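Z., the sequence and structure:
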Amino acid sequence: MAAPFDFDLLQELTETSGVPGYEDRIREVVRRELEPEVDELQTDGMGNVVGTLNGNSDYSVVVAAHMDEIGFMVRHVTDDGFVQLDALGGWDPRVLKAQRVTIHTDDEDITGLIGSVPPHTLDEAERESTPDVSDLHVDTGLDGQTANERISRGDLVTLNQTTERVGDNVTGKALDDRSCLFTIIEAARRIEDPDVTIHFAATVQEEVGIRGARALGVDLDPDLALALDVTVANDVPGFEAADHVTELGEGTAIKLKDSSVIANPKIHQRLQSVADEAEIDFQLEVLPAGGTDTAGFQRAGGAVPAGAISIPTRYLHTVTESAHVDDIAATIDLLTAFLESETGGHDYTL
């Protein structure tokens, strides 16, 4: 089955590097894709990108997805040529051993390997221990002098992974949150003459504390905010049904809550009504832990009605994040239908 959307663009977005605070490469892709679809395109002092589609009223809606992916910064290069890392974002070190990485220097990209010694050389305590990111080392295959000449403290490191189709799923790195960047770009392509002004925002530094969204909430001062992010899909062996949160292939997810936000009830109710009317499959998201840009916009410059749409995703914060193609398509459809039907006349006060 062919993907029901521009898979090549999704692949480019997910494979492009961009860690918190250094979103340069992905920012250029976003600017390239948004510019022909909007009336104005701006980048601010933090690196947030905002593409504005002017509506027929002063009422404004911001729709946001974050550009940054979790990654690392080089903190030390040893005399033997091994690279030690500092985390940018929330990593589970258990999934990092034996992974291939790319070290992004000023002059070049260097491939490295996160080392993992053979298990039969470890004692029982070492086999059962959980490493910290600070315990990991990157093997560049270079001697110490060469490594120190080519790699510097502060260079950036991302996981090296391609994006592929696996059955009905898309899998790779950085679906969090490039699949949602893709969603807002696709919505911007479809919407031509909105009743309200729409700010399509690609935010920075979400993975280290929703910093870009907080700044934009003040600068844009929207009347309504809608964030897009991935959410947990624990619909795999080893989890009870109540712990799935969402399930792949069951539709886009309308957020009710996470640990950072309780979505405005009138917004999630209207999202459900729009989905029902357009016959878009959806599920309700009750996420026990984790936060998104939704919280940043909800209270950045005062009380703003805020909601969120999520793409169900397995294996979050790994290089094999996986989402169902139909859920991605449903997310695009719901976002587009919601924005096209937003008149500025809906009362979201409680």
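DSSP finds nine helices and 17 strands in the chain. Residues 17 and 96 are 17 Å apart (CA to CA).

Let me know what you think.
H.
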